[in-house]
Design a protein that fits this description.
The protein has two helices and three strands; from the N terminus they run βββαα. The chain is α+β, with helices and mostly antiparallel strands.
Length: 68
């Protein structure tokens, strides 16, 4: 799923609904702090209603940890 603002791509999420693995969730830096990541995460949950599996590198992605 992608997220756009004014016709410009500002984020996306990829989920394997069979394995429940959330492979990527990306938001353009100029939109960090907005609700885009939460909307993408909600879409990931819709795609994989049985749950999600996510691996996070705690030292390199503090934003990802705060999102969870």
């Amino acid at each position: 799923m992608t997220a756009e603002t004014g016709g410009t791509l500002v984020g996306f999420v990829t989920v394997d609904s069979k394995t429940m693995y959330l492979d990527q969730i990306v938001v353009a830096p100029e939109h960090w702090g907005s609700d885009i990541a939460l909307m993408l995460l909600d879409e990931a949950k819709r795609i994989s209603p049985q749950g999600l599996d996510l691996l996070v590198n705690k030292r390199q992605t503090p934003r990802a940890i705060r999102l969870l």
